[in-house]
């Protein structure tokens, strides 16, 4: 697969490998991939999971989600924030090859400047949401009587993502 023109025009995006219908990308030092999608293409960026300082060894994402309710709640909150933003209607989360990916769909004729702006916001959002201290939030919300910390955390994330989308 050849890179769509808008991606090929950006000097900070480099193709790395062809993996079936997907092309692995280096997005300014971050892992990603692209693939064709009816009349357009998708670009995915890897979301690093927040690190649990209590974890003794690395485990697979699916195993971690099965055994860690804090991580599952974090993923659920992130999904709800994305679903609640009309401007993120072309975005989704998926788990593939034991990695959580943030995927955005672009139209085939999307201008390179718009693609670049969206991908910069997406990379920034990935960094922002993975730095949210999943386990410290979970511990503080368990000790709290009111559910307000969860609502505040999700609302705060939603406001920050909305502000990012306006940039």
Structural notes for this entry:
The chain is an alpha+beta fold and 167 residues long. The protein has one domain: Yope Regulator, Chain: A (2-Layer Sandwich), CATH 3.30.1460.10. It is built from six helices and six strands; from the N terminus they run H-E-E-E-E-H-H-E-E-H-H-H. A six-stranded antiparallel sheet has the order 1-2-3-4-6-5. Helix 3 packs across helix 6 and helix 4 runs antiparallel to helix 6. The longest helix has 19 residues.
- Termini gap: 31 Å
SS content category: alpha+beta
Rg for CA atoms: 17 Å
Shape: globular
Which percent range describes the beta-strand content? 25-35%
**What's the arrangement of strands in the largest beta sheet?**
1-2-3-4-6-5
Summary keywords:
single chain, about 170 residues, alpha+beta, Yope Regulator, Chain: A, six-stranded antiparallel beta sheet, 6 helices, about 45% helix
Map the helices and strands.
Layout: H1 5-8, E1 13-19, E2 22-27, E3 30-37, E4 40-47, H2 61-67, H3 69-83, E5 91-96, E6 99-107, H4 112-130, H5 134-143, H6 148-166
Antiparallel strand pairs: 1-2, 2-3, 3-4, 4-6, 5-6
In short:
By secondary structure, the chain is α+β, with helices and mostly antiparallel strands. The protein has six helices and six strands. It has a six-stranded antiparallel β-sheet with strand order 1-2-3-4-6-5.
